[in-house]
Specification:
heterodimer; A: mainly beta; seven-stranded mixed sheet; 11 strands; globular; B: mainly beta; six-stranded mixed sheet
Amino acid sequence: KAGVTQTPRYLIKTRGQQVTLSCSPISGHRSVSWYQQTPGQGLQFLFEYFSETQRNKGNFPGRFSGRQFSNSRSEMNVSTLELGDSALYLCASSIRGDYNEQFFGPGTRLTVL
Amino acid sequence: QKEVEQNSGPLSVPEGAIASLNCTYSDRGSQSFFWYRQYSGKSPELIMSIYSNGDKEDGRFTAQLNKASQYVSLLIRDSQPSDSATYLCAVKGQAGTALIFGKGTTLSVSS
């Protein structure tokens, strides 16, 4: 069974640009959560999607947005990039949003110059 | 602001010893507690979950929960060098709330 996949794995952008990251969950998983991981703040929750609906949202500015498609694949978008957005962005999938069944993808390393 | 606190470490133990990792949380209404292991350059992987007070054992791992003290711990018996990683404590409150992670404790097991 294939795991969670994320594309691209690495990304370099400049301030002010926007970026879109993609996450394909494990087959049959309908919940996708996004996290930002930085050395200073650790792992922080961005948002969760379940059956194309945002079910929960973390404390991030509106520049961070996401969506989920009918096949459960999810994208997150960050507009007007700032230096502080440099981080590892992780997505995790689960069948129904049960955290005891949550599996993480390898992450996308975003560097903002 | 709901918080999950962990000592950053590093926690250094010799091979074969017991490693004890601790975590405290601020939200008294928290209901679900998880321990993740993250190797350097890798993504987190779930190793234990615990929902009720007491101990839960899984192989060399034991999770302990004390809701009255708002404290959760992870014991690793017979520690191996392959256990060297960062251990993240995560706590979930009531329905509709997000999973909150601690910043992790780095464990180093020396052979």
